[in-house]
Specification:
about 325 residues; Glutathione-S-Trfase_C-like; oxidoreductase activity; Glutaredoxin; oxidoreductase; 4-stranded mixed beta sheet; 10 helices; binds glutathione; Glutathione S-transferase Yfyf (Class Pi), Chain A, domain 2; Glutathione-S-Trfase_C_sf
Length: about 325
């Protein structure tokens, strides 16, 4: 676990002393865009962009990581598997950070042949300074990471490749954007990143503050899902995918390892049936790997779990029937 400073790898755990016991997540730094083949080469905020094409991009992920998991789900649901290759790291993130060591459970890296994920960052920029994170979208043509921010990879995958795949599913419909953005902001702060802020806190009062915010938010999501099939109503959107990747890790990891133990997702009737519906959605279960998930957190984060023992349980009834059909739902919108 560490980071790059001027292109040199340094093995360091998160510094929470300088922030009063708080875990502060650093913003992703590689933020170029991928646009549709004939579109102007510019991202939605004027970012530099490269055109989508088949077999030009490769997605580097960890199957354990909830942020990478968003991108993996979009790759699956948007029919991108034949166009965008994928490599996954070993579940262990130790002194060299994420690795592509097959003997430790990685797929290996057939594109660049690197041992460590940080090498992809120094291939991109030999003087890179910052955290070395997954997911990362690699551009084989320019030999660099185009983008390492999962929220943006979700948006890129939502439309840039549509003319190549013929897949017009729309996870960010224009008329729902205001609502999706508001849900995302709350869920990111209190839930997606909230579990990390709770679990990585190194002061009691900081842990308790994030713990309280997390469960207030889960309680309110539980109420919302009592009469709404998905977070933004009748349509399944990116807001659901972003919540899903935290929910599926919750009972197996965050409840115990991150001490988020007020309630399990299994104790929330609506959230647990909603989790099952999404898990059973065609193309999603195949992106979920609970062995990678549990091994990564319990065996890598040894400041939290010094023995690195990985718990055997719990049994999760993800394939059990769900009751969400009682609510009106229309599935996934199509681009107009
Ligand atoms: N903003 C990034 C965050 C990604 C992130 O933090 N990934 C974690 C894995 S779950 C990581 O690679 N951490 C390594 C580190 O912080 O050194 C995104 O959403 O894409």
């Amino acid at each position: 676990m560490g980071l790059l400073v001027d292109g040199k790898w340094q093995d360091r755990w998160y510094d929470t002393d300088s922030t009063g016991g708080e875990f502060k997540r650093e913003s992703a730094r590689l933020r170029d865009w991928v646009v549709a083949p004939d579109a102007p080469l510019e991202g939605p905020q004027g970012q530099a962009a490269v055109p989508a094409s088949a077999d030009r991009f490769h997605l580097y992920v960890s199957l354990a990581c909830p942020w990478a998991h968003r991108a993996l789900i979009m790759r699956s649901l948007k029919g991108l598997k034949p166009l965008v290759g994928m490599s996954y790291t070993s579940p262990l993130m130790l002194e060299h950070g994420w690795s592509y060591l097959e003997e430790e459970g990685s797929s290996g890296d057939p594109i660049n042949g690197v041992r460590y994920h940080h090498q992809l960052y120094t291939l991109t920029d030999p003087h890179y300074t910052g955290r070395v994170t997954v997911p990362a979208l690699w551009d084989k043509q320019t030999g660099r990471i185009v983008n390492n921010e999962s929220a943006e990879l979700v948006r890129i995958f939502n439309d840039a490749f549509d003319s190549l795949t013929g897949n017009d599913l729309d996870f960010y419909p224009e008329d729902l954007r205001g609502e999706i953005d508001a849900i995302n902001a709350e869920v990111y702060d209190k839930v997606n990143n909230g579990v990390y802020k709770t679990g990585f806190a190194t002061r009691q009062e900081v842990y308790e503050r994030h713990f309280t915010a997390l469960f207030e938010c889960l309680d309110s999501l539980e109420r919302r899902l009592a009469d709404s099939r998905y977070l933004a109503g009748e349509w399944l959107t990116e807001a659901d995918i972003r919540l899903f990747t935290t929910l599926i890790r919750f009972d197996a990891v965050y409840f115990g390892h991150f001490k988020c133990n007020q309630r399990r997702i299994a104790d929330y009737p609506n959230l647990s049936h909603y989790l099952r519906e999404l898990y059973q959605w065609p193309g999603i279960a195949e992106t979920c790997d609970l062995a990678h998930i549990k091994t990564h957190y319990y065996a890598s984060q040894q400041t939290i779990n010094p023995t690195a023992i990985v718990p055997v349980g719990p049994s999760l009834a993800l394939d059990a029937p769900h009751d969400r059909e009682r609510l009106p739902g229309q599935g996934i919108r199509r681009h107009a």
